[in-house]
Input
Amino acid sequence: MFKTQAVIQIRKMQIYLFQNIYYFYRQFFGTHLEILNRPKMKKIFAGVIITMLILSSVAYTSCKNRAAQKEQQQEELDQVGQIEKQIESNVYPLPTSAEVIKMLTDLEVGFIIGISNPVDNVKKYFSSTTRAVNLGVYGADLSYATLYNMQQEVINNMSAIRSLANELNMSKIYNEELYDKIKQNFDNRDQLVSILTTAFNDTYAYLAENDQQPLALLVVGGAWVEGMYLTTHVSEAAYQVAGISKVLLEQKKSFDLFLEITQPYMNDASVSDFVKQLEPIKTVYAGIGTSLSDQNIKDITAAITTVRAKIVE
Output
């Protein structure tokens, strides 16, 4: 009887411990992105949980025989595996569009009016698939307008995002409070990146936690394509912009990672169809090495333009 009660108490403690560590993870790294190298950090975080789970079980396992201890240890390892999968599925997997757009502001390229997806297009998106993809698109456009302090553009993109978010049951994320935070921090780019990234993280986590991982991936994919579209259209000749080559090479890593994380969901028609649309980009990136020529940049630009036209139509 005593052992049964002890097990129950230990399990409660483990669950409580995980919930608090996971909450800290979401809150802390949502606002300290310079520390977060996602693939490695998720492994480290899972390692912390392993240690905590094992320590929390010592009081119980120490009084059991060896066979029982082995069985208990295996249970703990199985739990850790499940927890690690939960962490990886609930955390935004790529650099967000806000982080990508900040690279453009750091390059000191100007804002181009009319480059974003027209707000009126939101009326064309009726399916959950097109809504999710273009929620990502407008999220990138919001980042673009916000980090360039284009207040009317921010209002317009917030309106489009809120419309799509309402349809996807995420109105609490893109609410008036978010817009107020943006307005209060227009002169602080780092804080703006943090605010927007938190919103994107919350969007991804909400969908993932509600068994809508395919839609979460579509949001990420739409944001990536639009972020690349904005990056490659910073001028009439993007290849002449100093530093743009480095940005595009960095995004190749993100693209490869996106293709990797979509693999478990390729049996979902919405995901497989979206990945097929990315084929022009995949073809171009497959042919480049560790540096980009002017022609490489032109080819990437053309591929991104083609894909982007399809997803926003």
